[in-house]
């Protein structure tokens, strides 16, 4: 494709519909008309001026095509220019923030990576604070996130494959894995699903989870997420695949199993006995948060004879004049806590604290004194809401399961509670995420993986990678 500077300028303006942030700069290289084209704000104007325009204008000898060697030696950029003969490729590079250089009458257009896009500094993620261990967190820049992972995995087997998704956003999405560890079938399956996405744009990595799910309408969390490079690096070492989306600090990982959310990165930086105790607290808190409201409703509506007489009298005294039944009262209080939680998250930080105090103390106390709800119901709901945050990444799923258990308990008592619990457990048992059983290593029982489940043995004893996660190299240490 041989084009003049004038023709190139008109064609580019037409493609970009005359947008005013599209910038041209014409200059001469040894008497030959040339031009650079870039989008103001995406490309580094200072680098373009110093390392491309001024450097090429200093060339005094006569020039003649091809210009590849001239561009290579004449500019002073760390990364070499890439010659492009496809006009659509030039458009893509300019949209990404690169600068295009054309010398009048040249066969190729040269692209320089001189992007200058604002990026947030590396800091500790607000959702994954730790007392011990690395405090680095991912940012919205994909290149930075890739570097943070590569800094921890200094091996030639660290593979990054990038593609563009979104008709308008053309978002860079990278599939990251360890060759020789990760199962190639999983990598291919993920890449096929990503390549099949045809959508206007990908704004955040959360958009990708909908296309990567094995079951589209399941209430279960199916894709792992993390904001910390050390966690993602550890998952890659176990054979998982990471998906990084440009513009998002959340990195996705697959396959995903329920046990991942029970574990925490700080568990591996503390005493093994302490880690086991903390994990036991987490699972106990989560089970309590799900079963306690349903148990309370079942006892109060159908099995009150199971309560000690003194406790029963106290509860009956507190609820006998209430306008609502026990199940309606419990559902109302649980929904009230959900509303307060959503409001406090979305309010400005300092106002959110005040809102939490108003909702928890003033509103709750006033509702009890007004005779709308009872003190035991508020206590049970509060304990349940505290316990559910022991595993914060599962709140969305377990909150729905908790409501189902309350409804089942109100209809059928303990029988409904037990039957619904069995149904939820069976539902989890049937699920399989990219070849990984959802509730492994408990079902199916995998003895070697029990070493790092609720219990946590020393790393010295964990000589193999988890069998729960499909991989092609089982040996972790000799």
Question: Can you walk through the features of this model?
Answer:
It is built from 16 helices and 12 strands. The longest helix has 30 residues, at 272-301. The chain folds into 3 domains: 5-112, no CATH class; 120-256 and 456-478, no CATH class; 279-430, no CATH class. The protein is elongated and about 105 Å long. The model has no long low-confidence stretch (mean pLDDT 84). Strand 4 (99-103) and strand 5 form a beta hairpin. The strands form 3 sheets. The protein has a 5-stranded antiparallel beta sheet with strand order 1-2-4-5-3, sandwiched between helices. Strands 6-7-9-10-8 form a 5-stranded antiparallel beta sheet, with helices on both faces. Helices cover 45% and strands 13% of the residues. By secondary structure, it is an alpha+beta fold. It has helices at residues 5-15, 45-57, 68-74, 87-96, 142-152, 184-195, 206-212, 229-237, 259-262, 272-301, 309-319, 326-346, 349-369, 375-388, 395-412, 414-429; strands at 22-29, 32-39, 82-84, 99-103, 109-112, 158-165, 171-178, 224-226, 241-245, 251-254, 432-433, 436-437.
């Amino acid at each position: 494709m041989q084009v003049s500077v004038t023709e190139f300028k008109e064609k580019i303006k037409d493609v970009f519909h005359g947008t005013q942030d599209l910038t041209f700069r014409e200059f001469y290289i040894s008497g030959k008309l040339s031009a650079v084209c870039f989008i103001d704000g995406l490309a580094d104007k200072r680098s373009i001026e110093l390392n491309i325009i001024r450097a090429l204008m200093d060339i005094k000898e006569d020039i003649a095509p091809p210009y590849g060697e001239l561009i290579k030696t004449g500019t002073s950029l760390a990364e070499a220019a890439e010659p492009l003969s496809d006009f659509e490729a030039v458009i893509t590079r300019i949209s990404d923030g690169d600068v295009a250089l054309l010398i009048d009458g040249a066969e190729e257009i040269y692209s320089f990576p001189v992007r200058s896009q604002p990026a947030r500094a590396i800091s500790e993620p607000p959702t994954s604070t730790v007392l011990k261990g690395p405090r680095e967190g991912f940012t919205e820049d994909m290149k930075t996130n890739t570097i943070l992972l590569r800094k921890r995995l200094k091996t030639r087997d660290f593979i990054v494959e990038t593609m563009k998704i979104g008709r308008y956003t053309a978002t860079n999405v990278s599939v990251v894995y360890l060759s020789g560890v990760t199962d190639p079938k999983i990598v291919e399956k993920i890449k096929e699903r990503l390549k099949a996405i045809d959508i206007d744009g990908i704004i955040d990595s959360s958009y990708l989870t909908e296309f990567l799910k094995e079951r589209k309408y399941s209430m279960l969390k199916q894709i792992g997420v993390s904001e910390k490079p050390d966690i993602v690096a550890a998952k890659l070492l176990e054979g998982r695949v990471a998906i990084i989306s440009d513009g998002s600090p959340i990195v996705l990982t697959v396959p995903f199993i329920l046990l991942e959310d029970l574990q925490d990165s700080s568990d591996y930086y503390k005493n093994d006995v302490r880690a086991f105790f903390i994990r036991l607290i987490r699972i106990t808190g989560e089970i309590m948060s799900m079963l306690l409201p349903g148990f309370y409703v079942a006892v109060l509506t159908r099995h009150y004879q199971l309560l000690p007489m003194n406790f029963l009298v106290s509860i009956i005294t507190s609820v006998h004049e209430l306008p609502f039944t026990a199940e309606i009262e419990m559902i109302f209080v649980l929904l009230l806590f959900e509303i307060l939680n959503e409001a406090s998250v979305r309010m400005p930080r300092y106002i959110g604290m005040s809102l939490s105090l108003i909702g928890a103390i003033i509103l709750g106390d006033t509702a009890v004194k007004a005779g709308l709800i009872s003190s035991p119901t508020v206590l049970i709901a509060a304990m349940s809401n505290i316990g559910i945050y022991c595993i914060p990444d599962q709140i969305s799923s377990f909150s729905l399961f908790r409501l189902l258990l309350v409804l089942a308990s109100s209809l059928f008592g303990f029988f409904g509670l037990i039957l619904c619990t069995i149904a939820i457990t069976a539902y989890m048992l049937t699920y399989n995420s990219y070849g990984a059983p959802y509730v492994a290593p408990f079902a199916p029982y995998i003895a070697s993986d029990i070493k790092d489940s609720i219990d946590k043995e020393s790393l010295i004893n964990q000589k193999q990678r988890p069998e729960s996660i499909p991989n092609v190299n089982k040996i972790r240490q000799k």
